[in-house]
Specification:
Layout lengths: L1 E8 L3 H13 L4 E4 L38 H7 L3 H7 L6 H15 L2 E2 L6 E4 L3 E5 L2 E11 L3 E3 L3 H4 L6 E2 L4 H4 L9 E4 L3 H12 L5 E4 L12 H4 L4 H8 L3 H10 L9 H18 L4 E4 L3 E7 L4 E7 L2 E7 L1 E4 L3 E3 L6 H5 L27 E3 L4 H4 L9 H13 L19
Parallel strand pairs: 1-2, 1-6, 2-3, 6-17, 8-15, 9-10, 9-15, 10-11
Antiparallel strand pairs: 4-5, 5-6, 7-16, 12-13, 13-14
Helix pairs in contact: 1-4, 1-14, 7-11
The structure holds flavin-adenine dinucleotide.
Family: Belongs to the lysine N(6)-hydroxylase/L-ornithine N(5)-oxygenase family.
Pathway: Siderophore biosynthesis
Cofactor: FAD
């Protein structure tokens, strides 16, 4: 068992970026503990042909350290694929490519311990990481990079099982599903849309797509929408009172939690092709439907939905519940949990440098990545500002400006000084 300066729990993009930039600050002093058996990025959601929602420039390191050895460009050039990718002229690159980039970077980092499911983090003069009853590492500082897990609201969670399942299970379930039987996708976000596209591609002809929003809304990837995804805006947010900040961030939801226009076009075009082939549209869209209850029986399941003009029932063989994600619960020992401050909503209090407020001795800090949507904005759950967040954490940990975060050329004024 080894003692580290810093341990990151989870080896998703958040902590990979941190570990990559740690190389310049304190080589060999960070370890990442990861429950998966090897490098993987949302592997169960790598459905056919899925694309990134963000530019390939938004890699683990470049916006802070463009000469870093783990840049996406270095990956493309050294794997011999740069020209192929360039000439394929993707608007957004395949998600498979980004997943392979993360694998490539993970293999080069050499600080990741796989097959290590941390079930308890305790503190006794230092952080101790427990897996299967053993302490596998200790550290001075802790960085939580646990990501999220699929979520079903309580009114739908009861039907999860044979008849209803999360999109993560879709690929494994497909061989047992009959494409001629009716199937629903519940959820009007990107994962719901990708599930619909997958079913279309697999020849399903009776797909019902239900979403809460008034229409299946595209992501706002416009220049002003993207202005929320930059260090200058995150800095601005830090000085805004909490309640106002919450409202502002909630108003930005369509810049992140919505469907890429390319995916919507692909669905509408495949649906039209399907109509020409079969005489009927394989996908029926049901916008503005709130699925309020569901029950499953031996033959199928029934979804009860509320629309602006009344209640309706949808009888199906199966349903894919693409009803969102929620943060993974940190496996903190109760004593350690007690010492961490929560806000009025019971959420972790994340400071502007991503540290948590906790009652611990000097020299031992806790940081949480991808847990501060309401303090740092929508990009916190996104790849855009990964290196900026990592640089902020490292500068704070080492109490000096190891990385300079530059974003001074801004034409938007969110407040007048
Ligand atoms: C399908 C999908 C596609 C996305 N595409 C984009 C995109 O194109 N652009 C964009 O900006 N954002 C995208 N996002 C949003 C976001 O960028 C990703 O979810 C990203 O993976 C978040 O990184 P993370 O490291 O915080 O979490 P994760 O990637 O979820 O990584 C967390 C890691 O922690 C591990 N872990 C959790 N608990 C433990 C434990 N107790 N012990 C050990 N290990 C543990 C998990 O196994 C996992 O590997 C996407 C999200 C999804 C779900």
């Amino acid at each position: 068992m080894h003692h580290y300066h810093t341990v990151g729990v989870g080896a998703g993009p958040a902590n990979l970026s941190l570990a990559a930039l740690f190389e310049s600050a304190a080589p060999h002093q960070i370890a990442l503990l990861e429950r998966r058996p090897g490098p993987a990025w949302h592997p169960d959601l790598l459905l056919s042909g899925v694309r990134m929602q963000t530019s390939w420039l938004k890699d683990l390191v470049s916006f802070v350290d463009p000469c870093h050895r783990l840049s996406f460009l270095n990956y493309m050039v050294t794997t011999g694929r740069a020209w192929g990718l360039l000439n394929a002229q993707f608007d957004f690159i395949p998600r498979q490519e980004y997943a392979q980039y993360l694998r490539w970077a993970s293999e080069r980092l050499g600080c990741i311990q796989y097959d290590t499911d941390i079930d308890r983090i305790s503190f006794d003069g230092g952080f101790a990481y427990h897996a299967g009853g053993e302490v596998v590492a200790t550290s001075d500082h802790l960085v939580l990079g646990l990501g999220s897990k699929p979520y079903a609201p309580p009114e739908l969670a009861g039907v999860l099982g044979d008849r209803a399942f999360f999109p993560e299970e879709l690929t494994a379930r497909l061989p047992q599903l009959d494409p001629a039987e009716p199937i629903a996708v519940v959820g009007g976000g990107q994962t719901g849309a990708e599930s619909v596209l997958e079913l279309l591609g697999r020849g399903f002809t009776r797909i019902s797509w239900l979403g809460r929003r008034p229409w299946f809304q595209p992501m706002d990837d416009s220049p002003p929408g993207n202005d929320f995804y930059r260090p200058a805006y995150v800095r601005f947010l830090q000085d805004v009172p909490q309640e106002t900040r919450r409202r502002l961030v909630d108003d930005h939801v369509l810049t992140g939690d919505a469907i890429t226009p390319g995916t919507l076009r692909a669905i509408f075009q495949a649906n039209y092709d399907g109509m020409l082939r079969h005489g009927e549209y394989p996908v029926t869209l049901y916008p503005e439907r709130d699925v309020v209850t569901a029950e499953a029986d031996g033959d199928g399941l029934t979804l009860h939905a509320v629309s602006p003009v009344g209640r309706e029932e949808h009888r199906l063989a199966h349903a894919v519940l693409a009803t969102g994600r929620q943060p993974a619960e940190p496996p903190l020992d109760p004593e350690l949990r007690e010492r961490i401050e929560l806000d009025d909503a019971g959420e972790l209090m994340v400071e502007s440098d991503y540290s948590l407020r906790w009652k611990g001795p000097d020299g031992h800090r806790i940081f949480a990545l991808n847990r501060s949507r309401h303090t740092h904005g929508i990009p916190d759950a996104n790849l855009t500002l990964l290196p900026v967040r990592s640089a902020t954490v490292i500068n704070s940990l080492f109490e000096r400006e190891i990385f300079t975060i530059r974003d001074t050329s801004v034409s938007t004024r969110w407040k007048v000084a």
